[in-house]
Design brief:
Elements: E1 11-15, H1 23-34, E2 40-44, H2 52-60, E3 71-75, E4 86-91, E5 96-100, H3 106-112, E6 114-119, H4 135-148, E7 172-174, E8 177-185, E9 191-196, H5 197-206, E10 212-216, E11 222-223, E12 236-240, E13 245-250, H6 255-259, E14 266-271
Parallel strand pairs: 1-2, 1-3, 3-5
Antiparallel strand pairs: 4-5, 4-6, 7-8, 8-9, 8-14, 9-13, 10-11, 10-14, 12-13
Helix pairs in contact: 1-4, 2-3
């Protein structure tokens, strides 16, 4: 059963472990030991350390581009070893998600439509000695490998009624301005906000504005453009990126450093004069 790999979905891994240490590689070794035929794909291991929000956003923006029934293992787990539960989620879209119940899985799993959730408590489907600091190796990787081998979700543990939901900050419209904030910083230093394209369209229509300006922190106002290359080298810019969220960038440079900004920094959109 485990050796038949034709048409099998992959196991995809996302962590904040980085690339210096052995942690991500050991997780793959555990999977290979239990499910040697499984294809393992790295989504990312450079999630900022302990940033559950960044991990949740990256997972939400990734899952739909994978084959149906892909098993996603996400580990950004500052509460590892505490009372927070290890869980596995089956969704209506077919994707399966494994990780800590700290909000990390909630954005992606909600998008995919949560069908059922279990707590990973089966002793048979984890490593014999479970470390209080490395559930990625001892709990999550084994569960993913056993799922790949067609172990039923119910065999991994008891049902869970609800999961921890991650609440992203909301935007606000008032006094001829749309206010949001930075929720994600990528490796290029681009600052992704919680302001989506449809909200900007509604805001623009409500004031019948021909164009809009964007300001981050105390920086100068900038227009919204279509592509990074539409700005001159070194110039700050605003555009809608691949997440369909407004982001602040600097052409061929780093916006986070330029504006000394990060998650939580205010971003204001106003009608352009």
């Amino acid at each position: 059963m485990a050796s038949r790999t034709i048409d099998r979905p992959p196991i995809a891994i996302l962590t904040d472990f980085g690339y210096r240490d052995h942690y991500a590689g050991v997780m793959k070794g555990v999977i290979a030991s239990i499910a040697p035929g499984a294809q393992v794909i790295d989504i990312a291991h450079g999630i900022p350390p302990q940033s559950v929000v960044a991990g949740a956003i990256a997972l939400r923006e990734s899952w739909r581009y994978f084959p149906s029934r892909t098993i996603f293992v996400a580990v950004v787990d500052p509460g590892v070893g505490t009372a927070r539960a290890p869980i596995a989620i089956e969704t209506k879209a077919g994707a399966r998600f494994i990780g800590p119940d700290n909000g990390l899985l909630s954005l992606a799993a909600t998008d995919a439509g949560i069908r059922r959730t279990v707590k990973l408590s089966s002793l048979r489907h984890r490593l014999q000695n479970v470390s209080a600091t490395f559930h990625g190796r001892d709990v999550f990787a084994p569960a993913a490998a056993w799922l790949w081998r067609d172990t039923s979700l119910d065999s991994l543990g008891p049902s869970v009624r609800s999961i921890v939901q991650l609440a992203l900050p909301s935007t606000a419209m008032s006094a001829r301005q749309l206010r949001g904030e930075v929720i994600y910083e990528d490796a290029f230093g681009n600052l992704v906000t919680n302001i989506d394209r449809s909200t900007v369209r509604r805001f623009k229509a409500s004031f019948r504005a021909k164009s809009l300006s964007v300001r981050i922190g105390s920086g100068a106002a900038m227009p919204i453009i279509e592509a990074y290359g539409d700005a001159r080298i070194g110039a700050p810019l605003a555009l809608f990126g691949s997440m369909e969220l407004l982001e602040i960038a600097v052409r061929d440079s780093n916006a986070a450093r330029r504006f000394k900004a990060g998650r939580g920094t205010a971003v204001i959109v106003t009608p352009r004069k």
